[in-house]
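Lab channel / #folding
Pinned by the channel admin:
"Please post every new chain as: sequence first, then the structure tokens as a reply. Keep commentary short and put observations after the output so the thread stays searchable."

First post following the new format, from NK:
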Amino acid sequence: MDNIVELTLRLFVALLLGGIIGIEREYRSKDAGFRTHFLVALGSALFCIVSQFGFGVDLKDSSRVAAQVVSGIGFLGAGTIIFQKNVIRGLTTAAGLWVTAAIGLACGTGMFLAAVVATGLILLGLEVLNALLPQFGSTTVMLSFSSHSKESVKRTVNRLRQDCIEVYSFEVKDHKTPQGEKFEAVIEIKVKRGQHNERLLDYMDELDDVTITCIE
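Reply from TO:
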């Protein structure tokens, strides 16, 4: 009975800690959110428990199953990484899944303190340090906007470049509408972290005939 309670506690703590990281990712509107992270942590803990108790007490190397989790989680993490137009996305999400699996393994072996400390450090790095040091580093933003004038699209791109904003690529499509020809542009740019969305909105306010569709 005591053994069942202990194993249940290990699984529950893994679910809880993995879910906490997932909630943070969900808050950041990432594709791998609460459900993905708590499943990774819970599955890793279960694999660890199975490797310890599922093959009998005479098993000489009970770490083999757990070791496969470390390499196996790489396939799941690789699926979250996207390389598009010279821009890599999803590395933080992949790393988050990898370390969440490690937290699950720690819970599966009963190392609750290490798992809790690791969860706290992850949240510290993802949220607290990111908020305290927004001016360091840069981020890639996908900016979508529309205009009824092709010249306005060109002026917008030139305006961004004049402010030393690096433009990776941009694509312009034109459509026929009852109001006339409409141009839709999608631009990938590299900006400094911290309040970059507000700065982009200020740029667009300078052009009356430009409408922002999306900032990602």
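NK: The helical segments are 2-27, 34-53, 64-78, 91-108, 112-132, 150-162, 196-205.
TO: also worth noting, The chain has a mean pLDDT of 77.
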